[in-house]
Every structure is written in C-alpha cells, then in structure tokens.
Amino acid sequence: MNSLNKIIPDNYSILISEEKIQQRLSALGKEIAKDFAGKKPVLIGVLNGGFIFLADLIREIEIDLEIDFIRISSYGNMKESSGHVKVLKPLSADISGRHVIVVEDIVDSGLSVRFLNNMISAFGPADLKFATLLHKPERTVEDVKIDYVGFEIEDEFVVGYGLDDAQVKRNLRDIYIIEQD
Ligand code: IMP
Ligand code: MG
Predict the structure, then answer these.
(1) 8 Å CB contact between 81 and 74
(2) Mean pLDDT score of the chain, rounded to an integer?
(3) Considering only CA atoms, which of 136, 178, 149, 125 is closest in space to residue 53?
C-alpha cells in the first residue's frame, strides 16, 4: 500500500493513524447497527470533508442503509469560520419519515451542525442524529448534541482522511496536525 509520502510536508505530524481510525470506525459501526436495527437509516455525508469517513463507516454498519450527500460551505479557504453557512448542493433523497444520520468530518464551532439540524428537521425525518469523526469541544460555541463521536481532539487544525488544507491533502490516509514554525 502506498504511503503518499511525496505529498506529506515536513511540518505535518500524525495525530491519529489510519489503523486507529479503522478500529474506532468498527466500534462506531457496531453501535449504529444496534441503534438502527430494522430501521434502514439514511446516512447523509457532508461534502467535501465527510466523504471518506462516510465511505469507511458504512462498511462497518451491518444493516441495510441508504446514503445521500449534501454540500455546505462556511469556510472558503480560511481556517476560521466566516459564520455564514450556504447550501452548495442540496439533498436528493426524500427523508421525510426516515431515520437520518448526518455524517460530518469535524465539529468545530458547531455552526454547521446547528444549520444542518434546522434545515433537515424541516423535512420531517422520523429521527435525526449526528455523527462526526472529530470534535473540538473547546471550540464549540453552539449548543449542539453529537450522538456519535470518533475522537475528541484539542484546538488544532487537522488535515487528511477527507479533511483539507486549502482544498488539498484530503487523500492522506492518516490525520495530521500542521506544526507551526
Ligand atoms: P463548524 O461549522 O465551525 O463546526 O465547522 C465545521 C467545518 O469546518 C468542518 O466540516 C470542516 O470542513 C471545517 N473544519 C473545522 N476545523 C477543521 C480542521 O481542523 N481541519 C479542516 N477542516 C476543518
Ligand atoms: Mg466540512
């Protein structure tokens, strides 16, 4: 398996390895399968960051499920939230009366989750839950409830495994911190 070394800058250091991610996903997948047994949930991946997490997570959930995607933007190429959330790609699935799990890459301020919660609730799902690979609790200012958290991390900017640094590095297999010098 390639290690993508050619595109890993010197100031990147591994925070969470591919192996640790997969172990955690296996546990989360079992939990979700148990909680949603017989319910055929719709998992909504939040683009772009959540696509790799969604792809790996669903293969750890041993029940029938459907997927859909939504794309929202609040950041542009900045590392701090602009405070405005826009829908860039709407949902395709009819989620009214369905059991929905929104799958996010990372919860930072919580603004995106609050926005998605309001927007998706308006479609009348039977149930709406949130899963995130990463959560930075110190940064979260919105009062949001996350039902499934992969890892809680410190207030640091992270990249890889779907998460970008100015749109690149999403293809890295591990999650990295960028060391500031
Ligand atoms: P929130 O709305 O402030 O919670 O931000 C959530 C979104 O910001 C995530 O879905 C990411 O796209 C982006 N984001 C927040 N922190 C990071 C990070 O450390 N690395 C990469 N993207 C991040
Ligand atoms: Mg995102």
Answers:
(1) yes
(2) 94
(3) 149
